[in-house]
Amino acid sequence: MTSRSQVNKAGETLRSYPETSNKYKAALALAEEWRKAHIYPLKTFKSNLDKRLTKYPKAISAQRLKRMPTILDKLKTRETSMRLSAMQDIGGIRAVVQIVSQAEKLAKEYRESERFTHLLKEAQCRNYIESPKDDGYRGIHLVYEYNNTLARTREAKESKGIFIEVQIRSELQHTWATAVETVSLMTGESIKAHRGNDNWLEFFRYVSSAFAIIENRNVLQAHEGKEQREIYEEIIKIMDSMKVFDKLRGYSTGLRVIDRIRKDHYYHLLILDIEKKRVRIRGFAEAEYKRAVAEYEKIESKHLINTDAVLVSAGQRQELKKAYPNYYLDLRRFTELLEAVTIEYKAK
Question: pTM score, two decimals?
């Protein structure tokens, strides 16, 4: 297995050398190998999460490997001093529960679990429900260092020290976050990374506060002191000026889904062609993870314009769509909630 020092050196090379250089290409190949190293610990974390979620009706779970373009953007632009081996979210699992109190309860269960031997990295954990991001994002992120004290297999031993991020969200928080990602995809702007149209950014901030009111949580700091009606009024103003309903409905109109999924498939490669409004889904059995990652890397290496891909595991078709509605351009639930806000505002 590649050493941490080699991984970190590759990260520095990716920051410093041009993409056409042989050194950059060699470093990228090493970074891809490092990403693959997260597959085994991800699978064990996902299995543990699924057992925990049996107590939570209608909860869904998913796992994903971070997209290489996102890893590179983080290294080069957003966190230029970060060591590649310390990037905590290359491998991530996600739980989406019905209500925010369940999200908080599940996070507490993780923290208090004595039989869970993996090491909680407290300094890297974030409770974005108690203290939401300025852009409106909410959820709980727990970061663990893989540490199987009963490790017998080679994979388990080699996984020691790898970071896995556990994301926990309520259904409303998930709807908000995936709507941000969908609009980012369709507009070509990095709204999720705070780089985009100011009107969209402001819109999602106000919607985050509106959803917080619904869940009996604090609004964003920027909106403290505002009444519920004022927040709803701002949302409606922005929606009217930007024709938000028309845009959201237009994004998903005419989407074609082409899938090859069987019941024995564990991994799913989602490939969204934004220009053609087509999502292709390729399924792979659990034992085919190497082929799944190879196909993932092949798609990413083509640098296709208006195409986005991600390798995930989230059960069968229904769970997949619930976990990743952004790859289906599915904004129906988000639109329903906006319509409810509009109706409530007009009724007052």
Answer: 0.92
